[in-house]
């Protein structure tokens, strides 16, 4: 039965692909949502303050992205908007490794990508080969807007730390002790449509026989809210060129070093901060 279902999916993909013009381009809009699970000490932070913190964090992770694509190339970046004012009253958010110049260019024909990334006030140009994502195609479907989407999953191991969020820099660790990383298997679930036969999607997700309209890793969900095919004004897909050229492996090493330095700096300054201040670190 499983073989029959897979064969049915493959036939549907081929039919959908053949009836759509080969030369086309489009723009897909995505909204991001992230689950935030924080346990705070009620003796230190009252319920009103906790609610304010949760609301602020939720807004930090709700973003809009644009994916411009054609048959072979795509560019994914955050939609430009005015920066929100910095929170008052002692709350400080530190978003590690995030910047307003992030642009991800992908070329599926040449199996490579270029990621222009601003991290810690420095612009990097990460150039590397596309990862071969081992998707498992399923026969389950659902409607997303005007499109029929098929389910696909793949599992991967990621490195996670004991805690990525802290209040006032405190963790359940001894003084000077680092949170040890561990490997954890996560399942990526994607919904793609063969009606738009491009092997592309948001962030680093790609490799399916159709545009990815929705994807979640269990924590973050990216949902396509709008697709415009063959707009009247031609889309220009440009590969970014500015920044320090570097491989993904080297970039990851630099970020790991920076995060450790930042963690040590927070710990050393912890005793000197106002007791009423609240610091939330994301990604550290």
Strand content: 35-45%
* Tally of structural domains: 1
- Here the CATH topology equals outer membrane lipoprotein receptor (LolB), chain A
Q: Quickly give the CATH architecture.
A: Clam
Strand pairing plus helix content: what structural class? alpha+beta
Enumerate the strands of the largest sheet in spatial order, edge to edge or round the barrel.
8-9-10-11-12-1-2-3-5-6-7-13
H-E order: HEHEEEEEEEEEEEEHE
What is the class in the CATH system?
Mainly Beta
Outline the low-pLDDT stretches: 13-21, 88-100, 163-173, 275-284
Q: State the major sheet.
A: 12 strands, mixed
Number of helical segments with 4 or more residues: 3
Through-space gap between termini? 46 Å
Percent of residues in helices: 10-25%
Number of strands: 14
Q: Provide mean pLDDT, rounded.
A: 78
Dominant shape: globular
Estimated radius of gyration: 21 Å
Task: Describe the structure in your own words.
The protein is an alpha+beta fold. The chain contains 3 helices and 14 strands. Mean pLDDT is 78; it is low at 13-21, 88-100, 163-173 and 275-284.
Structural key phrases:
alpha+beta, 284 residues, 3 helices, twelve-stranded mixed β-sheet
Describe the protein's topology.
Layout: H1 2-18, E1 26-34, H2 47-61, E2 64-69, E3 73-78, E4 91-95, E5 103-107, E6 112-119, E7 122-129, E8 136-144, E9 147-160, E10 182-193, E11 211-216, E12 220-229, E13 244-246, H3 248-269, E14 278-282
Parallel strand pairs: 4-14, 7-13
Antiparallel strand pairs: 1-2, 1-12, 2-3, 3-5, 5-6, 6-7, 8-9, 9-10, 10-11, 11-12
């Amino acid at each position: 039965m499983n073989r029959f279902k897979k064969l049915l999916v493959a036939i549907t993909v081929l039919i959908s692909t053949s009836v759509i013009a080969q030369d086309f381009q489009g723009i897909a809009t995505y909204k991001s949502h992230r689950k935030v699970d924080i346990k705070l000490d009620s003796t230190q932070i009252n319920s009103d303050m906790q609610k304010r913190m949760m609301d602020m964090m939720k807004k930090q992770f709700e973003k809009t992205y644009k994916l411009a694509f054609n048959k072979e190339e795509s560019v994914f970046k955050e939609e430009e908007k005015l920066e929100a004012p910095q929170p008052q009253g002692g709350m400080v958010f530190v978003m590690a490794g995030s910047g307003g110049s992030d642009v991800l260019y992908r070329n599926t024909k040449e199996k490579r990508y270029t990621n222009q990334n601003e991290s810690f006030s420095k612009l990097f140009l990460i150039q590397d080969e596309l990862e071969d994502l081992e998707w498992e195609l399923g026969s389950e479907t659902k409607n997303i807007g005007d499109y029929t989407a098929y389910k696909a999953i793949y599992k991967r191991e990621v490195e996670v730390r004991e805690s990525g969020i802290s209040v006032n820099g405190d963790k359940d660790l001894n003084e000077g002790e680092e949170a040890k990383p561990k490997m954890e298997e996560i399942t990526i679930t994607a919904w793609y449509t063969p009606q738009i036969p491009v092997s592309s999607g948001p962030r680093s997700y790609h490799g399916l026989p159709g545009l990815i309209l929705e994807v979640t890793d269990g924590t973050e969900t990216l949902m396509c809210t709008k697709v415009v095919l063959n707009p009247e004004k031609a889309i220009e897909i440009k590969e970014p060129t500015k920044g320090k050229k570097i491989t993904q492996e080297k970039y990851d090493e630099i970020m790991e070093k920076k995060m450790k330095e930042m963690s040590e700096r927070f710990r050393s300054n912890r005793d000197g901060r106002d007791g009423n201040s609240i610091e939330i670190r994301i990604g550290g």
